[in-house]
Amino acid sequence: xxxxxxxxxxxxxxxxxxxxxxxxxxxxxxxxxxxxxxxxxxxxxxxxxxxxxxxxxxxxxxxxxxxxxxxxxxxxxxxxxxxxxxxxxxxxxxxxxxxxxxxxxxxxxxxxxxxxxxxxxxxxxxxxxxxxxxxxxxxxxxxxxxxxxxxxxxxxxxxxxxxx
Length: 164
Prior knowledge:
Strand 4 (68-75) and strand 5 (81-84) form a beta hairpin. It is built from no helices and 10 strands. It is mainly beta. A 6-stranded antiparallel sheet has the order 1-10-3-4-5-6, with no helix packed on it. A 4-stranded antiparallel sheet has the order 2-7-8-9, with no helix packed on it.
């Protein structure tokens, strides 16, 4: 018997809106990762904001530790991209300009440095040798909706998330 996956997006009570180009809209959690990670997967639903024509990086997730502002950061525009331990890898695609919700994921393992991007359940980019043997350090700060240039701040209005 084949398993079927069904996607049921959360209701409005869990919806975060980032509809203006401002560095004051975000959610923040200090000490959000309590153990060092040698693998990570991050998934979320997002759709492009039709009111934004910018090709600036839009980063829905940013995790920073002292000394490394891009310990684990995920951006969606212009292409899907992840920064781990300050270095980056990109997929060949970004969010579609279709006003539809898309399920976006990135996964990484330090064992061989394997990483893979998914969009709506389909692999859209992968590779290996990305921070092999490294780990995401615990004790940092997570921000949803902004890219941190310092722990808990240093937000840049050209790299914020503008989406619904």
